[in-house]
Amino acid sequence: MAHCPFAEARFLPESSTQPRIKPTQIICHTMAGTLSGTDAWFRRGDVGVETHFGIGRGGRLYQWMDTTVRADGNYKANRRPDGTGAISIETEGYASEPWTQAQIDMLVRLHVWLMRTHTSIGRRICRTADDPGLGYHTMFGAPGPWTPVAKDCPGKKRIQQWREVVVPRVLAALKEEDMTADEIAAAVWNAEFGRGDRRVTAGRMLAETREDAHAVREALDALAARVAALEARMNQA
Q1: If DSSP codes are grouped into helix, strand and coil, which group holds residue 219?
Q2: Would the pTM of this model clear 0.85, i.e. be above it?
Q3: CB of 15 closer than 8 Å to CB of 69
Q4: Which residues, including other chains, have CB under 8 Å from residue 72's CB and lie 6 or more apart?
Q5: Could you give the CA distance from residue 179 to residue 221 in angstroms, rounded to a whole number?
């Protein structure tokens, strides 16, 4: 079982009755409604469709299905003959609206948790309908392999945010978490910082600081020698 620790548990009966899957994809949707309204709709018993998660405009997160159980919101990606399937995320609002910042932040957090929990999910944008990775509902057409009907989901504005903001943030977070101590040290060493009117790497800054310290030490040694010579002359006088 895989239950998200920062989601509100709103599990549907289907979560304990439908076949299990090996998650290889994450697919984003738009509800065309509210979080509470979608929750009530899923619970009617005659809908025949559901998704794993729902994210409200304020970032509130519901989990309706265990992530290792099939959710019927992605057509042929729900569960394939080999047992692989997609985890689906509904987002509150409409296809004409962009995601709020709170929704984007929760999408990123949830994606990272899912991809750390299920390492079978590909760390890239899906290249085909069954390729492990990240996608959105109408990525491969509508109708298409992920939706049997024509629709605009999650919407042009949200697709743009998904490509330009969500996916880059998710992959960057995963890359940062996976860095070894040597890689972190190398990243710090090669990071650039302001030094006067120019930018230099941390390594170059340290080297220049050492050079400056050496020059100061030489100047102090020379000054000490001059003071000693002056003291000797004064003693002779």
Answers
A1: helix
A2: no
A3: yes
A4: 14, 18, 48, 49, 50, 78
A5: 44
